[in-house]
Every structure is written in C-alpha cells, then in structure tokens.
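Example for tutorial group B:
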C-alpha cells in the first residue's frame, strides 16, 4: 500500500526526489502535520566554503522553512576538532581554532542566501556545537553518555566497518566522532526542542545513534531522515569537476563558472537537477527534463539561471548567460569570464602556455595541460594550440588573451 503524506514537507521531499530513508515515516509525517518542527543538519567546518555537494541538503532546509518549519544549521566548531571518519580512507587533517572560526564565517555567508534567520517561530537558527562540546568534562561524559554506547554495535556501522575491512587505521579520536554527533542531537533536543536530524545517507548510523541516545537519556521520541547520495548519470560524485570542487562562495568560484557548471549538465540529469536544485513546479521540471536534441539546451539554461539566481542573485545569472552567449554564439570574449591577472614580474621573459592553463584552472596539472594540447583540446584566442612549449610574453598580454579547454571552458589572462 502506498503511503500518502499528510504534511506538505514530506510530500515535497518525496515528490522532488529528496528522500532516501526515514526512521519512522508516519510518526514524522504526523509531527509535521501537528505543528512547527525544528530540524537540523550539521556541517563540519573543514573548508572556507560549502560546495555543490552540500547544495541538496541546503535546499532541504530551504523547503523545510518554506513549508512552515524551523531549520537549524549546526556548525561543527567542536566536532571539526575531531574529524568525521565516515567513508574516508584516511584521517582528516586537524585544524586549529582560528582556521575553524574563519571557515565557519565563510560557510555562514552561503546559508544566509537560502534561509531567513531571526527570532520568529519559523526563522532559522545558526548554532555551533562548540557551545556544549568545548566545556565537556571527560569523566562525566564517559559516565553519563559513554555507557549508552555498545562498541560491538559501533563496529557494525558501515562507515567504520569499511575502514576496518580495508585494514586502514581508525584512531580513537575518530571513533569518538559518532558519540559526539549523537550527543549533538541530544543537546539540540534538550535545548531547542529539535525533533529531526537530516543528512546524506552516509550519516544514517550517526543519526540512529543520536535517536537511540536521546530516547535512553531523555525518553524523548525524535526522528531521522536521509537524502540520497547524489551521483551524475555517468556515475561520478556530484559537485566535482576537472578544475576541482564547485564552491558556493563567489570569491572562491565566480558566478559565471558556477552558472557554466549547471549549463554543462548532461541531458539525462537535467530533469532530476531541476527538481532538486530549483523551485520550479515539479510538472515543469519533468516537462523540461523530457526535452530532446537542441531543445534540452534551453532547459539547461533555465536550470543554470534558476540555481545561480538562488545563490548569487538574478543579476549575476543574467550576466553569466549574456557572457555565455557572447562567448559561444558570437565568438567574443565576454566580460564575465574567469580572469587571471598577472604582474609583469610574474611574466618575466615569458610564461609557458602549460603554466597558464594550470593557473587559470582549465587544467588540473601540467601533465593534463600537455595532454589537452596534444589532443587538440586547447585554444588561444579561438585558434588551436599545437605547441606545448609555447611561451607567452608581456607584449602578447598587452591586451587580454582568451584560453579555452574544449568547447565549454574559457578564461582570460591579462597583465595587472
């Protein structure tokens, strides 16, 4: 028998493809139908910006608020000091307090684009788990919290098991991470009445731990919901490109490059991404996703515009589209392309074309740049590059030059 959700939020999650698993569908649906549900997602501060891989869960928080509930963004100021071992083959490098605080500030800029923060009933809360984790007394924590955890059960979780099966070291520090994440859920429930933790499906074990701990310590019923781990139709992990991570902060990735990432979506993913990353009605997403041939390109431009508007604003989306048209349709340069500005000292007697391809991010390494040139995939001012040993001098850079990798990736190089 198919279960029909009573609440708007569960209906949206199901219809748009956000739902992977839930600890109690009916119980959670009833809670959403009964009143305002505070729900959280945790983010460790491992970089100065969030990236496209985080965007699906940011959209989940946005829909939660649009459906009349209370999103909580929990910054891992405390847990980042330990590092999440989930599905990693090695231990995360440990960051110092200043770096963690700087990363949190960078990440907060993105959340403010998607969520309304404030003191009203459904306004979002920005919290930091350092608030309760930094002051923990180790002996009290062991006695009051540690006794509720079975090591046998912790060893059975896939994130830990996969590491041990490969005979890779798992430090005691990392092993504690899941206890701390479970404790976060307990504290959020105790302090803020939080009823739901959400996250990617790799967080299932950690979420279940928090539900179990809260039931044992407070005797409260809370819930967990996971989103699918998103891969593109060719099996790659969402959010990675040849040039590296697709960052959400404009100072780490230009709005044009962000727009271009979505414009380059494969045909097979367009409908799915419209449902997940835009707020267009589901029927419209399906209609656009079903287009074929050259018509699907119009759908990809709509996808790129909608996603870029949410993050960087409508003006940035329009500028990116105008630049793309200038570059692709008219063979021009466009004034919104990623630009590398070099000093006369950096250019010196000349700088190699291979170095420029790497510095602009069009190639990940010198080896990749040389391969691009040998396969006729690189261009200078729309003319094919054939000589990997070519040097560019200051005179050539007296006006900006345009470098291209393939048909869709371009950058300008100029003298500062």
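The residue assignment follows.
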């Amino acid at each position: 028998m198919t279960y029909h959700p009573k609440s708007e939020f569960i209906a949206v999650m199901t219809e748009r493809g956000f739902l992977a698993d839930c600890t109690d569908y009916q119980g959670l649906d009833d809670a959403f139908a009964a009143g305002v549900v505070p729900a959280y997602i945790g983010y460790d501060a491992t970089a100065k910006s969030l990236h496209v891989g985080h965007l699906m869960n940011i959209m989940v928080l946005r829909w939660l608020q649009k459906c009349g509930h209370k999103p909580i963004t929990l910054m891992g100021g405390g847990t980042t000091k330990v590092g999440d071992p989930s599905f990693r083959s090695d231990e995360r490098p440990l960051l110092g307090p200043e770096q963690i605080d700087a990363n949190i500030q960078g990440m907060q800029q993105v959340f403010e684009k998607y969520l309304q923060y404030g003191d009203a009933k459904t306004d979002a809360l920005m919290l930091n788990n350092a608030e309760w984790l930094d002051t923990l007394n180790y002996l009290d924590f062991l006695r009051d919290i540690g006794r509720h955890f079975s090591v046998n059960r912790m060893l059975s979780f896939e994130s830990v098991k996969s590491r041990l099966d490969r005979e890779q070291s798992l430090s005691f520090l990392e092993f504690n991470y899941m206890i701390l994440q479970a404790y976060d859920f307990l504290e959020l429930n105790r302090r803020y009445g939080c009823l739901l933790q959400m996250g990617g499906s790799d967080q299932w074990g950690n979420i279940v731990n928090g539900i179990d701990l809260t039931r044992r310590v407070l005797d409260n019923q809370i819930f967990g919901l996971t989103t699918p781990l998103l891969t593109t139709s060719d099996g790659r992990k969402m959010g990675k490109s040849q040039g590296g991570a697709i960052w959400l902060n404009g100072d780490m990735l230009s709005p044009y490059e962000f727009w271009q990432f979505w414009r380059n979506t494969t045909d097979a993913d367009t409908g799915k991404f419209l449902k997940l990353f835009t707020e267009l009605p589901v029927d419209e997403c399906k209609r656009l996703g079903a287009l074929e041939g050259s018509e699907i390109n119009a759908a990809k431009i709509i996808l790129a515009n909608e996603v870029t508007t949410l993050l960087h604003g409508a003006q940035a989306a329009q500028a990116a589209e105008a630049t793309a048209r200038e570059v692709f349709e008219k063979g021009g340069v466009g004034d919104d392309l990623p630009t590398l500005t070099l000093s006369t000292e950096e250019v010196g007697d000349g700088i190699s074309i291979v170095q420029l391809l790497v510095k602009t991010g069009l190639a990940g390494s010198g080896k990749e740049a040389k391969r691009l040139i040998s396969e006729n995939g690189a261009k200078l001012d729309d003319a094919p590059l054939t000589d990997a040993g070519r040097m560019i001098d200051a005179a050539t850079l007296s006006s900006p030059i345009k470098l291209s990798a393939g048909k869709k990736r371009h950058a300008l190089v100029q003298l500062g």
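The chain has three domains: 8-227, 254-328, 339-415. Compare this with the pattern of hydrophobic and polar residues in the output above.
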